Amino acid sequence: MSQIAQLSEAEIEDRFHVTGSRPIAFMLAGFAKERDSFSVQFGEGQIFLTTLLAVDADKGSLIFDCSGSADVNRRLLAAERGVFVGRPGGIHVQFAAGPVREVRFEGDKAFAVPLPKFIVRLQRRDAFRIETPRIRPLEFFGRLPDGRLLKLPAHDISVAGIGLTATELPADLTLGQVLDSCHFHLPDDSREMYFRAAVSHVTELEARSGNRQWRLGLHFLELQAGEENRIQRYITHVERERHELS
Questions:
Q1: Are 162 and 147 in contact (CB under 8 A)?
Q2: Residues 149, 165: Cα–Cα separation, whole Å
Q3: Which residues of the chain have a pLDDT value below 50?
Q4: Which of 51, 58, 76, 105 has its CA 20 to 30 A from that of 186?
Q5: pTM, entire model
Q6: At the topology level of CATH, where does 4-123 sit?
């Protein structure tokens, strides 16, 4: 059973919920300043990738980028609410807000929603996940069941698994599928890291340009303690560098 599953609702709210209009506005404004990406889930499993643009404190609203698809925009406006999910700084952040309305932001069309009543912010050290650098990203290599090579850039990583970004979904890839002969090389590490991994999630995203991409989540299998330490050292190094630059 996971750490969160063992907590009561009151404990979850106390430890992971950000509440209050000012803290919520401040946190979302910070994400908007960094132009952090979030996926918006709405309707019956529909999803698209957006960027937080600004917080209008006077109107109590969050402004975010619209989709490049007119059909997606129409369906989102008709939805009662959307669920925003992102990993700014490698931290899982999630909140629900709605309804959506169309606004103008810096001369362009955008969307706005009322500020959420609370934000869920998970930061469990046993599965702390951090976004990998976009410049010279980690390159993941693995073998699909039919022997084809899978080579994709990493989006984020934790000691439990790795997130990958694909511009095309590999054929016949399914949840729970085990990939053999997986490996990647951590910067400044002396050797490759080899392991097996299972596909834990596949999420389709759509950018404003209309381009589609997929996020693939892989769960490490039989990773040795020494390998976990290597990943944790890498995560700590990336965290420290980002704090020094902020």
A1: no
A2: 15
A3: 1-14, 124-126
A4: 51
A5: 0.51
A6: Pnp Oxidase; Chain A (2.30.110)
